[in-house]
Amino acid sequence: MNQNRRVVVVSWKSKPYNTIEVFSSLKNFCISYPKYNYNTLSNYLSKAKIPYETDELRVERKDVFLQPKIQLRKIMPIVRKVAMKEANDYAHDLNYWMGKTPAERLSGLTLLVRQSIKKGQRLDKTHIVRRALNS
Question: 13-27: per-residue pLDDT in tens?
């Protein structure tokens, strides 16, 4: 069911700074300000869909937008589906990592090692060769 939600907007001309009040219904406005008749205001606002306006105030119904009026652009995923044997990303990967600083490469390697070992498991350092980083 597509039901528009509306509020009653009251713009006071006589109050300082052109005060605006928003009510959830016309009935709530009329209870708050008994000087104004519900039936009179309802006739103005529902039949002709025109605001009720005096020297003191302006009363009108406004729609409440529950969704954006326009859809923001959607980011389209870029996907390349190939078999792992046919991907041949070695050159791309090498160029990517050679473009990084030695510290960034070491950070990436540390992340991979941390993801591959289980909690509490220690890294087997018998196969590690230590080298100085050249910046």
Answer: 877 777 889 998 899
